[in-house]
């Protein structure tokens, strides 16, 4: 199973000190967090995409390319690439370029984002969000798999004999996740293509995401990609840990209370009861995360949000150390012991995708087979 960190890249005032990091500090902090994730033995670092304050990651491939040059093993991903407001041609070329630079350590998550004004900023209509997601991804899927594309759709100018460059590394496009917190149409889209489905269930109760994931699994099987329990599922989550659970609650509470998304709303206790947010000891995080399997079935990727709401970089790095040393090793062992042999343990890597793309070798004659053995 793959474990990692995702960041939304918010620039938030630390409520305990009143200090707000600069954009440069926050961008460099995200890089430091990615490097720490690899050092701690995690598998994935993912960045969001935003085009408005208080967020800084407007160019995910720029950041991930820089991180690629400073890491060796880490899978580099996005926790949203805006399929609705980005040009599919630019996505195809940017991520193929990143593939080459990172030697294939790349995948990405398509999403519509949660900032309504981004649509007019890029000349789009939010009322067309779902049709944009469907049409743009259909074009992107073709651009990565066909050397020459003729295209005519509703939302961009036609393409005639177009080849996106560079071509995907080794002829294998990056693995794609479709992320959604609310839309069954996106779960259906992920199932249709046999892609992954990522439920970032950090805000809503589990029952909502159980329905979306069950739909995705059922439709994945319907489209012939495998059994429902073999569908590729990823989950989000947020944790804050200290050795003593009450210390964790006391330290995290001011950050929770003033968080830009859920601050000044339900109490910390109410929020942890209704959502996957876990604030407590490492063992509590282990127990809570293992319970996700009971709700969603076996899944392949777990990403944690750890740098949100103004937490100091020093604290975030401490959290990643705890995650890597005390939590993830136990989770790997426990999830693997529970996973049936026919269910994929991880999302497909670049090597997996290259191997799957190779045509089966034609059967040789008996003489050829004997010669091969000799």
TrEMBL record:
Top-level enzyme category: oxidoreductase
GO molecular function: oxidoreductase activity
Protein name: LLM class flavin-dependent oxidoreductase
Residues in Luciferase-like domain copies: 1-294
Domain of life: Bacteria
The EC number(s) this enzyme carries: 1.-.-.-
PANTHER family for the chain: BLR5498 PROTEIN (PTHR30137:SF8), LUCIFERASE-LIKE MONOOXYGENASE (PTHR30137)
SUPFAM superfamilies reported in the protein's UniProt record: Bacterial luciferase-like (SSF51679)
The organism's taxonomic lineage, starting at the top: Bacteria, Bacillati, Actinomycetota, Actinomycetes, Streptosporangiales
InterPro entries from the UniProt entry: Bact_Lucif_Oxidored, LLM_FMN-dep_put, Luciferase-like_dom, Luciferase-like_sf
Keyword Protease annotated: no
Keyword list, A-Z: Monooxygenase, Oxidoreductase
